[in-house]
Design a protein that fits this description.
The protein is mainly alpha-helical. The chain contains six helices and no strands.
């Protein structure tokens, strides 16, 4: 699943991998912790920063949020990747899911 988030994969594959991780991390603490790693967070941040597909971007943002709840030690690393302006705009102007 993690490999499917990579840059070389088709966007549809990346979307379904991201959506699966989003659902797992939302529903199961034990299974979700397997995805609450720096590697997954980095891949999701890359998707968030580079995709023009808003649905994929939203799924990546929600997945990152779930991962932060499961592994709070990742929060500083994730927050360093987002500027205060990006974070504020995501909350103010982004989809309601964010």
């Amino acid at each position: 699943m993690i490999k499917c988030l990579g840059v070389g994969e088709e966007e549809t594959v990346r979307f379904y991998a991201c959506k699966t991780i989003e659902n797992i991390t939302a529903q199961s603490i034990s299974a979700g912790c397997n995805f609450a790693t720096l590697e997954v967070a980095t891949l999701l941040l890359n998707i968030y920063h580079t995709t023009k597909n808003e649905v994929l971007k939203t799924s990546a943002a929600v997945s990152i949020s779930h991962i932060c709840k499961l592994n709070t030690t990742l929060f500083p690393t994730i927050f360093e990747s987002l500027t205060c302006k990006q974070f504020s705009l995501a909350l103010l102007e982004g989809p309601s899911r964010i």
